[in-house]
């Protein structure tokens, strides 16, 4: 059955949240420990029998989606306000991120705070983990896709590798959102053509050559964007027709499991739609004020704004 565009928007946001929430259970564990505990993806998923709660990855994604749904573009001031408005420090924010958001809250120079904690700019995966709404919203506008992914990174991540990581996740989400059929070679060819650095070009080339889940670990499982963005993309490309395999295989790598599964889940959900997320997982996602129902309605709101943008663009083109 064909997946509608609205289902892709919902699938991406919910796919991200479920991946984040499940991965959050296993953050910072070693792959060896996880392999002893679980025989594979199925046993990992069967392990969950209670409510799962998302972390900072989803919370910051909500902020980004709210700004896009309201204003149709990322403006730095609105984005910072949305980060502050959504901020719950106990959701697993790193120390640097907490300091930067608290500086935003106090009206201080948050960029100065960021460069104090991350000299030269952060090249962590914090911009990539939250960028999926940009990929959805600008899936058929490459120039805006890349520029808005960059804008969404800047308040916290000014290092080129942090920004590029965000652009690549946005691009992966955009690719699967605009195409019904997943063409692996074409997907990697396009992503590699967008790379600005040799580092990402090499990593994505290696990702494109991976044939088994055992090879995924070689791409990395760390908090640096370069050590996680290609891994998430590769996991999706290995199991494009299975949401559970896509997120399960990166969670079993250990390390930064919540962010790996958030990024991989956002791509997989955009490709397969919300109905492809196993009920067993989606049904356990928290029903807090900004939980499952809110995420579904936020995705629909983002989709309506997208349609409005499309209509305005076609009027612009005709006049
Ligand atoms: Mg997290």
Automatic annotation (TrEMBL):
Textual note on the cofactor: Binds 2 magnesium ions per subunit.
Entry-linked InterPro entries: ADP-ribosylglycohydrolase, Ribosyl_crysJ1, Ribosyl_crysJ1_sf
UniProt KW Metal-binding keyword: yes
Protein residues bound to Mg(2+): 55-57, 256, 258-259
Molecular function terms from GO: hydrolase activity; metal ion binding
Keywords for the protein's UniProt record, in alphabetical order: Hydrolase, Magnesium, Metal-binding
Alphabetical list of Gene3D superfamilies matching this protein: ADP-ribosylation/Crystallin J1 (1.10.4080.10)
Keyword presence, Translocase: no
Cofactor(s) the record lists: Mg(2+)
Cited Pfam families: ADP_ribosyl_GH
Record PANTHER family: ADP-RIBOSYLGLYCOHYDROLASE, ADP-RIBOSYLGLYCOHYDROLASE-RELATED
Name this polypeptide is given: ADP-ribosylglycohydrolase family protein
Higher taxonomy: Bacteria, Pseudomonadati, Planctomycetota, Planctomycetia, Pirellulales
């Amino acid at each position: 059955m064909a997946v509608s565009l609205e289902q892709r928007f919902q699938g991406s946001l919910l796919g991200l949240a479920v991946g984040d929430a499940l991965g959050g259970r296993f953050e910072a564990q070693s792959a060896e420990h996880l392999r002893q505990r679980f025989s594979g993806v199925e046993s990992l998923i069967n392990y969950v029998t209670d409510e799962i709660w998302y972390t900072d990855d989803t919370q910051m994604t909500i902020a980004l989606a709210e700004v896009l749904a309201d204003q149709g573009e990322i403006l730095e001031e609105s984005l910072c306000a949305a980060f502050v408005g959504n901020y719950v420090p106990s959701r697993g924010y790193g120390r640097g991120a907490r300091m930067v958001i608290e500086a935003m809250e106090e009206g201080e120079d948050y960029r100065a705070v960021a460069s104090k904690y991350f000299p030269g700019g952060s090249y962590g995966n914090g911009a990539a983990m939250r960028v999926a709404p940009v990929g959805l919203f600008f899936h058929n506008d490459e120039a805006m896709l890349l520029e808005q992914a960059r804008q969404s990174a800047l308040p916290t991540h000014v290092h080129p590798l942090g920004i590029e990581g965000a652009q690549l996740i946005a691009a992966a989400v955009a690719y699967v959102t605009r195409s019904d059929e997943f063409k692996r070679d074409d997907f990697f060819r396009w992503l590699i053509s967008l790379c600005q650095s040799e580092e990402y070009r090499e990593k994505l080339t290696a990702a494109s050559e991976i044939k088994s889940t055992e090879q995924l670990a070689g791409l990395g499982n760390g908090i640096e964007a370069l050590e996680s963005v290609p891994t998430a993309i590769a996991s999706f490309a290995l199991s494009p027709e299975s949401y559970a395999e896509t997120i399960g295989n990166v969670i079993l790598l250990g390390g930064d499991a919540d962010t790996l599964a958030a990024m991989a889940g956002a791509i997989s959900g955009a490709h397969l739609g919300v109905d492809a997320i196993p009920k067993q997982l989606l049904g356990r996602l928290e029903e807090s004020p900004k939980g499952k129902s809110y995420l579904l309605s936020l995705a629909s709101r983002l989709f309506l704004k997208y349609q409005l943008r499309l209509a305005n663009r076609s009027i612009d083109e005709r006049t």
